[in-house]
Amino acid sequence: MGIDYSGNIISISDEEGNNYQLEHLDTFEFEGRIYMAFFPADLDIDDPGYGLLFMRVEEENGEDFLANLEDEEEERVYDFYMESIYEDDEDLPEE
């Protein structure tokens, strides 16, 4: 079956069976891998975990699944993504 990317909102479950709603913002390639950018669709905006989320698309037995990123990989992907969306804008947000 795989992942359904046809809508803007997807539902995923973690290893503990918790379900999350994510809004798909973008799909892009970085360092030969495919990544997807999401924004939590079901969190309270005041929640400190509310923010941009990246996941790597992996394939197993002919089906796609989303994989979490390690800290170092997440930082590189975040930097690449932010640079790519602001490349035409001189007002790149400061870290």
**SSE succession:** EEEEEH
Overall number of domains: 1
Helix content: 10-25%
Give the end-to-end Cα distance, rounded to a whole number of Å.
40 Å
- Low-confidence residue ranges: none
Number of helices: 1
Strand content: 35-45%
Describe this structure in words.
The protein is of the alpha+beta class. The chain has one domain. The chain is 16% helix and 40% strand. It has one helix and five strands. A five-stranded antiparallel beta sheet has the order 1-2-3-4-5. The model has no long low-confidence stretch (mean pLDDT 82).
Blueprint (SSEs and pairs):
Blueprint lengths: L8 E5 L5 E12 L2 E8 L12 E8 L2 E5 L3 H15 L10
What's a concise summary of this model?
The chain is 16% helix and 40% strand.
What are the defining features of this structure?
single chain; 95 residues; alpha+beta; five-stranded antiparallel beta sheet; 1 helix; 5 strands; 16% helix; 40% strand
